[in-house]
Every structure is written in structure tokens, then in C-alpha cells.
Amino acid sequence: SAEIAVMGPEGAANIIFKKEIESAPNPEEMRKIKVQEYTEKFANPYKAAANGYIDAVISPDETREQILHCIRIAKNKNVHHPDKKHGIPPF
């Protein structure tokens, strides 16, 4: 059910397919078709995972396990902050 996009599929389809929608005999039906086409092609989590935008697509019932797993991994993480190469002297 996740979407990764700057705008929703309806807004994007209205902009991208504007000429096709306006020139169609039934613009409202064409708009629905183009929104569905855009959603299937671009606005789905599997496409985002394939492009490397997200690490995994999980089902909602796996969410708690995934969060706990990430917390366990990060709990003992040592963060090293290197010394500053050039400090800013006080004036």
C-alpha cells in the first residue's frame, strides 16, 4: 500500500497525460485509465525496491519484527566521530 512519489498518482497522471486526457472522447474515463497505468508503472513499492530507493517490501504483519531487528542491530553500534582536521579558532 506504500507509495513513493513527489505527488499522488492522480496529480502526476493529470500532468503527464494532459493532452491525451483532454483529446479523448471521454476524458474522465481516460483519466481513470491513465491514473491506473501510472500507479502500476511508477507508484508502487516493488518498483521503488527494484530501483534501490527502499531496502525491502514487507507485509504489515512483519513490521514489528523488522523494527525490533533494526533496534537490536543499532543498540550496540559504536559511532566514531573523527577529530576535526581544522577547527575554527575563537575570535
Structure description:
The protein starts with 8 loop residues before the first helix and ends in a 16-residue tail after the last helix. The chain is built from five helices and no strands. The protein is mainly α and 91 residues long. The model has no long low-confidence stretch (mean pLDDT 88). Helix 1 (9-16) crosses helix 3. The chain has one domain.
Outline of the structure:
With 91 residues, the protein is mainly α.
Distance linking N and C termini: 55 Å
Domain module count:
1
Which blocks of ≥5 consecutive residues have pLDDT under 50? none
- Biggest sheet, open or closed, and with what strands and sense? none
In total, how many beta strands?
0
Mean pLDDT, nearest integer?
A: 88
Which structural class fits the helix and strand makeup?
Answer: mainly alpha
Helix content: 40-55%
Order of helices and strands: HHHHH
Shape, principal axes of CA atoms: elongated
CA gyration radius, whole angstroms: 23 Å
Can you count the helices?
5
Strand content: under 5%
What is the fold's blueprint, element by element?
Blueprint: H1 9-16, H2 18-23, H3 27-41, H4 45-50, H5 63-75
Helix pairs in contact: 1-3
List its salient traits.
5 helices; 91 residues; single chain; 53% helix
